[in-house]
């Protein structure tokens, strides 16, 4: 009975507390874990990436409750997903895209049976009135298929990936973390397929990154040259020793990254 | 054995951790839920509003532990309140006012029996030494009446409300949330009593709000005209599509809002 | 099975969630309590102070998991410590110094048996791959001595203390808290040994502090003169009524504080 929460609600207001209250009302004894509530307001890509980076670290069958919901109150659907042994509850706006890309056997349902909602359902806070009650029901053992009909056309964002461009590969900056490390969309397999046993240089925002480090503290402590490093989420990251690569290079999520193959 | 915590201690220092340690020392197995620790330092109104907005979402008999305490160490009283099936622990400085306004059958006690405190009691951190131990005792089943004598003159803030003014109603901005939505003191009943079946216009900080929306994403996505909407806490809110109404209109908590009746 | 977490990971990214997922994978039913994740990136002193200020408030045998780790991936050791009835897991970089100063009977071990790690161990996220698995094992009852050999040369920071200087004592500002209070390294014993029954004046950053208050709200509410006060962590603090002493006096952690004895 583990439920994680991932929202853009911040921690200053009562929103997260209201959701947790409803979860504990309907599933007493549930263990609640915050993934984050500091997603920038309505930033679906950041939420999708953060979920991708940690959902599989939790013991199955955890319920992952994701509420970044600019369309609250409109007719966008509420989704329940079963994937990889986990359950997910989220609005149908693409926020589960990266998980669905990684879990091709996922089953997706349109949660429309109001018996699983809180009554009355407000038009402005489905986190409390729709998504938290669904998560509580799933944590209590509800079969995902019972919430409503199967969905084959869930809203999807562009998949994480890289593309051939000239003699290299073009990817993007997926995320900038708290330390200023820039997580790119390059995975080990793509780069090693393209350049087996060879050095790769990266170009981002007019800067060139020439070195791959094995760990952060490698090299001299006063060395301020940015470098690439294989990050813990499985993607190539651009970093700088004891500083913010994002600030140093002026990089933001969505920026293009070119891998120049030798 | 559910205890919620609401403070202005922030999450950078050890204060909240110390309180949780004491709670778990004295009530092993308690479930601890943060409401927020990001109340602006000593902002009693923000704390009172946040508590009001979510206390009833938790399963009774949760203990709500509220520590916003500019008078720590002085002779301000510590209160224990039983209301609506819940228990509340807080300093006697008005922070429970809105709950007391809503729960007329509340019983209020002056917690002065030192046997329920941690010894010795510091003069600067009653959250750890007085309030957390009281909350732990209540979570463990202590009868609120046992902490000390009944209180009939608890400190109260001005009640949330609206007043007749000319041909309209005058309310205030209670709170600005993370998204910049401005929560006003107008409730549905007050407005429908004053203007049944009629459109209402709001005036705030020199701006006029002419429309009430049913949900946030209603209307065109590029429409930047502020609108009113019935919020999830039961109050009329002023919002703007995908932006901060507070920033757009220059509105702060405490600002006056006029409802112009047709 | 209580595990506390203290990191510089912030709460925006997935890092803390990944650690909690691993903890709950390996120690189902563990109670997880955040001390803080808002330590400034790689600020070992702030982390060490925050841990010192609250570790003993938790019920033994809690496991305190501390990850502020600029040397991640290098050959810095992972430590497991048994002290004061608690267990600690942290990188060997000094972050446990203040606890070790206070607990002379501590036993320190070099955690190098990979059977207690997650496989494979990344080079960039030992919080998830090394420290959280160790904490989970300890919470599950593992004898600290089983993780690897005893260590007698753990990295230590300069101890908290004060030194004779001229006719007074010289200490430092250990920490500035959320309210702007400046926690100094002076303890009650040192000052009372040096100046029994006598008034002490402090000098910091060119300002002189002439009064010691018993509690924050003592004196007139509009009095903006900074004062000293015995703080809840056992150190003398410099504060100002309803304001930030750090901002008023321009004080930062590490600044010198002189106690002028009469």
Radius of gyration of chain A: 20 Å
**What assembly state would you assign to the polypeptide chains in this entry?**
homotrimer
Percentage of residues in strands of chain A = 25-35%
**How many strands, what sense, and barrel or not for the largest sheet of chain A?**
9 strands, mixed
Low-confidence stretches of chain A: none
Question: Keywords for this structure?
Answer:
six-stranded mixed beta sheet, alpha+beta, 262 residues, homotrimer
Compact overview of the structure:
3 copies of one chain form a homotrimer. Chain A is α+β, with helices and mostly antiparallel strands and 262 residues long.
Q: Care to describe what's here?
A:
- 3 copies of one chain form a homotrimer.
- With 262 residues, chain A is an alpha+beta fold.
- Helix content of chain A is 21%, strand content 28%.
- Chain A contains 6 helices and 15 strands.
- Chain A has helices at 15-26, 44-54, 97-102, 126-139, 188-194, 245-249, and strands at 2-7, 31-36, 63-67, 78-83, 86-91, 107-110, 163-165, 168-176, 182-187, 201-204, 207-209, 212-213, 227-230, 235-239, 256-260.
- In chain A, the strands form 2 sheets. In chain A, strands 7, 8, 9, 10, 11, 12, 13, 14 and 15 form a 9-stranded mixed β-sheet that branches. A 6-stranded mixed β-sheet of chain A has the order 2-1-3-5-4-6.
- In chain A, β8 and β9 (182-187) form a beta hairpin.
- In chain A, α1 (15-26) packs parallel to α4 (126-139).
- The longest helix of chain A has 14 residues, at 126-139.
- The N and C termini of chain A lie far apart (51 Å).
- The model of chain A has no long low-confidence stretch (mean pLDDT 94).
- Chains in contact: A-B, A-C, B-C.
- The A-B interface holds A 9-15, 17-18, 20-22, 24-25, 28, 32, 41-42, 70-74, 122-125, 128-129 and B 2, 4, 11, 31, 33-39, 50-51, 53-54, 57-59, 62, 175, 177-179, 214-218, 229-233, 237, 242.
